[in-house]
Amino acid sequence: MTAAPGPLQPTECPSCGSAGGPDRIRCEACGDLVDVRAPLPAGGRAAGAALREAFERSPERSGVWRYRALIAPTIADPVSMPEGRTPLFESARLGRFCGLSRPLLLKHEGMNPTGSFKDRGMTVGVSVARARGARAVACASTGNTSASLAAYAARAGLRAVVFIPAGKIALGKLAQTLAYGARAIQVDGSFDRAMALVEEAAAALGLYLLNSVNPWRIEGQKAIALELLHDLGWRAPDWLALPAGNLGNTSAFGKALREAVAAGVVERAPRLLAVQAAGASPFYRLWRDGGAELVPEPRPETVATAIRIGDPRSWKKALRALRETGGAAEAASDEEILEAKRAIDADGIGCEPASAASVAGVRRAVAAGRIPRDAQVVCVLTGHLLKDPDATVKHLRNEPARAPADLGALRRLIEEE
Ligand code: F0G
């Protein structure tokens, strides 16, 4: 199924339809973010069985490049760790936690090489950057994108420059970003300020921009949804929930599902539930109020620092994804996010705070009657528990016991558990 090496697909604007080259990020005609044109095989829906067969037989160890026929067929020698092929957990306890009558499924993207789903987009983004002759790559980040970019750039021999909100990224992510050798620039203000700066700097200084505004990142992240459908035997669940910040991932899921249905790989798409943190929820408000334009949140604040974003770039694509799948948006409070995180951690699965927003959002949607109790629901956990050790330790409910001096006291401590 792998096509011969050749030029990259062109881009096209989802808003006005204008076509352009593979290096475009925004449409020259209307200014909106562009998409990569899907390499959909001839034959439409009839091609689905052949594609599924090719995916099944693929010897690729990467859970991204395994699906390259629907992603970037002409990239023959990618920068890959490899990423993907992440576990799908089943948890009856978390099903009950959400108010469901059946187990909750959790696709753990924190099990990627740098501990977050960003690796799925970065293997494609950095491979394209290298193929296009870039010397330096750049991003703004709440921490996971910068960790992933730093690692993949190091593997590719490219210089990485990252803009991070000063004092607002989790320790594990900062450690990774610096250790992998990125040039890190701390910016006073939120992610939104860092994002505006990197867009300016990339244009002025010739840095190859690898935030999820880059459509090739989106192509790689499509593989999360494709692999999940594959895990489920190419049968869509009822709902697919994910945490939402800059909204690249929600956009990627929407595009993957649209294309998977068009290619006949699956019959139908799951409904998407995009969950924001209440203190950083401009997209939730847009969806709730049926507005036409996103109104940015000037002072986003949440314990889930990964999604502490007030001016998400990909809101138009994400809104389309919700509309097309009959989906919804939710907002969960920090307390709800932390409660969900403790439940996920205590089930032995574990995740960083932002990831738990997906479970907190499902719990809310079930309580509100939006998701039926007997629905099959999959939550995407986007980052590993070890990404944010400070938040985890700070919000624990089980303090460690001090070792007592005698065996009797020790027995009481252990047996009272
Ligand atoms: N979950 C985690 C763990 C994240 O790191 C992010 C985004 C999201 C969810 C939201 O994804 O932005 O596509 O809606 N992190 C970015 C970063 C912003 O810089 O690492 P999104």
Question: How would you sum up this structure, described in words?
Answer:
- It is built from 14 helices and 13 strands.
- It is of the alpha/beta class and 417 residues long.
- The model has no long low-confidence stretch (mean pLDDT 96).
- The structure holds ligand F0G.
- The site of ligand F0G has 23 residues, from α4, α8 and α12.
Strand order of the largest sheet: 4-5-13-10-11-12
Average pLDDT, all residues: 96
Strand content: 5-15%
Question: In angstroms, what separates the terminal alpha carbons?
Answer: 56 Å
Give me the Rg, rounded.
21 Å
Attached small molecules: ligand F0G
Fraction of residues in H or I helices: 25-40%
Shape, please? globular
Please write the string of helix (H) and strand (E) elements: EEEHEHEHEHEHEHEHEHEHHEHHEHH
- Main sheet overview: 6 strands, mixed
Helix/strand-derived category reads: alpha/beta
Number of DSSP helical runs: 14
Ranges with pLDDT <50 over ≥5 residues?
A: none
The total beta strand count reads 13
Q: What attributes does this structure have?
A:
417 residues; alpha/beta; six-stranded mixed β-sheet; four-stranded parallel β-sheet; 14 helices; 13 strands; 39% helix; globular; binds ligand F0G
Topology diagram in text:
Layout: E1 11-12, E2 19-20, E3 35-36, H1 48-57, E4 88-91, H2 92-98, E5 104-108, H3 118-131, E6 136-140, H4 144-156, E7 159-165, H5 171-179, E8 183-187, H6 191-205, E9 208-209, H7 215-231, E10 239-243, H8 248-262, E11 271-277, H9 282-289, H10 315-325, E12 328-332, H11 334-346, H12 353-367, E13 377-381, H13 389-394, H14 407-415
Parallel strand pairs: 5-13, 6-7, 6-9, 7-8, 10-11, 10-13, 11-12
Antiparallel strand pairs: 1-2, 1-3, 4-5
Helix pairs in contact: 3-4, 3-7, 4-5, 7-8, 8-10, 11-12
